[in-house]
Amino acid sequence: MLKALRRARNTKAAAARLYSAVSAQARNPAFFTSLGVPDTMDSRFDLLCLHAWLVLEKLGTRRSLAQAFVDGIFIGFDEALRQTGTGDIGMNRPLKTIASAFYGRLAAYRSASTLDALTEAVRRNLFRGAEDRMVQSRAVAAYAVDTLSGLDEQDLWTGNVVFAPVPTI
């Protein structure tokens, strides 16, 4: 019984550290200054989705940690909505829209089996399909591939995430 409680507490703590690391990386100024990602709520959401996908891809079979991590992300979404003035009664619709967008982004990135496909998914989501953002989209996609190859599942279990350096253009 005590082992199960300790394991659940450790899982929640690791998930909280993962969320904190992903959230901080999604706010890394280099994405906005060096790569020209628009500094908007939508782009910040898309960067969070991209980094969450990287962690979730690498977690693989660690379902309890993955679920705790996603729960933490949605608590963050809930808190952000409340800060914008959304009350309890008005939370359902925006959260459904956010959930749909979040899982849609994850599916788009997960289905991208090549660097070209990931570049297109990044351009479509992060840069809203802007044709003049192919170089930046490719740089972000390459960053994602580098990060994914460098992530270690055991480190994630302890809540540690090491992201690749953000490229500069």
Task: Chart the SSEs and their pairings.
Layout: H1 2-26, H2 29-33, H3 41-59, H4 63-83, H5 92-111, H6 115-126, H7 134-150, H8 153-157
Helix pairs in contact: 1-3, 1-4, 3-4, 3-5, 4-5, 5-6, 6-7
Walk me through this protein's architecture.
- The chain is 73% helix and 0% strand.
- With 169 residues, the chain is an all-alpha fold.
- The radius of gyration is 16 Å and the shape is globular.
- The mean pLDDT is 91.
Low-confidence stretches: none
Number of strand segments: 0
Q: Give the topology string: H per helix, E per strand.
A: HHHHHHHH
Please tell me the total number of domains: 1
The amount of beta strand, in percent, is under 5%
Report mean pLDDT, rounded to a whole number: 91
Please state the CA-atom Rg, rounded to the nearest Å: 16 Å
Helix % is over 70%
Shape: globular
Largest sheet: none
Tell me the structural class. mainly alpha
* Total number of helices: 8
State the distance separating the first and last CA atoms.
Answer: 53 Å
Question: What would the keywords be for this entry?
Answer:
169 residues; mainly alpha; 73% helix
Short précis:
The chain has helices spanning 2-26, 29-33, 41-59, 63-83, 92-111, 115-126, 134-150, 153-157. By secondary structure, the protein is an all-alpha fold.
